[in-house]
Amino acid sequence: MPPLSPHTWLVLSVAACAFLVLAALAWVWRCARTLPPGSRDGRSARRMALLFALGALAWLAYALPTGYAALWRADTLMLTAQQGALARLPLLIGGLPWVAALLLTRVMRMLGRTGGH
């Protein structure tokens, strides 16, 4: 099986960024839906999840063009030389929303334990 071309790695790197951010969104929404929708905590959790989704999508819209600007215009030799960047960018772009998602779901779990209405 022939190795993948550098341009294929670029597309896979961008897809990994999008997948990581969307997976963090799904994680937060899944946690927000565990609280009853009619309760005060449930409404607060859904509002936090909505704000997180807007922020994560804004981060993705900013980070993809900024991080990959030089790589989109690169030729095959430069993409081969920048293989490390193609592996690190998804970790940076996708990692930031995951850290925020883990912290936010921790707050939502604490909301669920208080039982406030």
Structure write-up:
With 117 residues, this protein is mainly α. It has 4 helices and no strands. It has helices at 6-32, 40-72, 76-81, 83-114. Helix 1 runs antiparallel to helix 2 (40-72) and helix 2 packs antiparallel against helix 4. The chain starts with 5 loop residues before the first helix and ends with a helix. The mean pLDDT is 89.
Order of helices and strands: HHHH
What is the mean predicted local confidence, pLDDT? 89
Estimated share of beta-strand residues: under 5%
Radius of gyration: 18 Å
> Can you give the helix content as a percent range?
over 70%
The outline comes out as elongated
Question: Based on helices, strands and strand pairing, what is the structural class?
Answer: mainly alpha
Count of DSSP helices?
4
> Main beta sheet: strand number and arrangement?
none
